[in-house]
Amino acid sequence: MSSEKAGQYPFTRGIYPNMYRDRLWTMRQYAGFTSAKKSNKRYRYLLAQGVTGLSVAFDLPTQMGYDSDHAMAHGEVGRVGVPIATVEDMETLLKDIPLGEVSTSMTINSTAAILLAFYRIVAENKGVNANSLRGTVQNDILKEYISRGTHIFPPEQSLRIATDIFEYCHHQMPKWNTISISGYHIREAGATAAQELAFTFSNAIAYVQTATDRGLDVDDFAPRISFFFNAQMDFFEEIAKFRAARRIWAKIMKKRFKAKDEKSLMCRFHVQTAGSSLAAQQIDNNVARTAFEALSAVLGGAQSLHTNARDEALSLPTEASAQLALRTQQVIAHETGITNAVDPVGGSWYVEKMTDLLEEEAFEIIKKIDDLGGSVSAIENGYIQEEIARSAYEHQKKVDSGEKIIVGLNKYEHTESEYIDLQEINEAAVTQQLERLACYKEKRNESDMEASLAKLRKMAEGDENLMPFINDCVKNNCTLGEISQTLRDVFGEYNPA
């Protein structure tokens, strides 16, 4: 360890030689509300407050490939994010935002290809060339089978679409991160730190293997792979986890996939503070929790960070709560002096030992998954889900017994009621979304729309890259739901036994 430097393989101490001394992490605040217009207002507010990258939360119908007027969308439109059914919705979402200057992260998986097409076409309509666009689509469908459930198609077809995005962006959108492989949701479901690393990287191995099996050169797409991790409350374990993550990925790419480009070996990652650590009781305690979790991400060398707001256990964050969450990052960046050192915890016997142990445990789990036939097989036979459930159960037992103290929840409680100003769902905005969608459908050219969907269907039945045909559908005013249904008709839906 003593001879290892930041910016050098296996990147334990950081992927860049000078880390934050040269450039701070990207400060993002995840947001999405009942309408594209309201969400746009929040994004412009956050930009004015100092965020350096946008992060878009989509509602469940958008994630599941349903338009806002679909029967399956009833009661869910705009509840946990912004509804985006059409390219017009995306235009409203991004109004007056300089897409050539701002990086945009979109937390979207099953419908990632469609949202990416919306984004590109809106940018081009603004005069921004696709090859200058910077951002990320999550595009990590495997963790949906493991922990979230917003999958549509079976794994084989989902991996095909993910790989289509890899290939398409390499040629058309070279600055775009084609996937953000997520350990965040795996950890939120109850995984341990070592399991978060192992399951995330096993999924990553599956994506890389699928792409190379198609004939893609690993060094053509691997530099645009990014990761998304959780920051929990065990402060030193989290720092060690982030350091171990870089080391594990570098070794996988160099030894397993024979990557030669140094950028292919770098584990670049976004961190979000833990939603599962937020308590609905005494919500101001969440400010302290978020601050410590954010600090662990910075000390661990994250490239991008979102800090949860104090009220997110109860509702979408208010403007004041979102500002305070952002200020937490800004205080760490500008007032603590932490950014003056490349790897402030390097050399700590405790952190170094924990880094080694997490790496060792993660590789042991990865080996088990390999022996089961890889991540897809381990998902289909339920191994990964069962391991997460077991860890979640053990954690909850400790909370319920009081062995693990959660301040304000199982210790230091108080019964006084407290007034909390919460963000409320605007039902009128939902009605307006449905009216806009109806108007959109009425004014388009039906024959052009149907022809583009028919072409997409034909290509889906073969093995062509689907992105150009999805783009054509968007240009011909097809909705997200119509494009998704066309692919559903060909690929079917995944229903685990």
Task: Detail the topology: elements first, then pairings.
Layout: E1 26-31, H1 36-49, E2 53-57, H2 60-64, H3 87-93, E3 103-107, H4 112-125, E4 135-137, H5 142-148, H6 155-172, E5 176-177, E6 179-182, H7 184-188, H8 193-214, H9 218-221, E7 225-231, H10 235-256, E8 269-273, H11 285-299, E9 304-306, H12 319-335, H13 349-371, H14 375-380, H15 383-401, H16 427-443, H17 446-461, H18 467-475, H19 480-491
Give a short summary of the structure:
The protein has 497 residues and is of the alpha/beta class. The protein is built from 19 helices and nine strands. α10 links the parallel β7 (225-231) and β8.
Please state the structural category. Answer: alpha/beta
Helical stretch tally: 19
CATH homologous superfamily annotation: Methylmalonyl-CoA mutase
Instruction: Give the overall form.
Output: globular
Total count of strands: 9
Rg calc:
22 Å
> Numbering strands along the chain, what is their spatial order in the largest sheet?
5-4-3-2-1-9-8-7-6
Strand content: 5-15%
CATH architecture: Alpha-Beta Barrel
Reported for the largest beta sheet, the result is: 9 strands, parallel
- The number of distinct structural domains comes to 1
> What share of residues is helical?
40-55%
Poorly predicted sequence stretches spanning 5 or more consecutive residues: none
* N- and C-termini, Cα separation: 47 Å
The ordered string of helix (H) and strand (E) elements is: EHEHHEHEHHEEHHHEHEHEHHHHHHHH
Kindly identify the CATH topology: TIM Barrel
Assign the CATH class. Answer: Alpha Beta
Mean pLDDT: 95
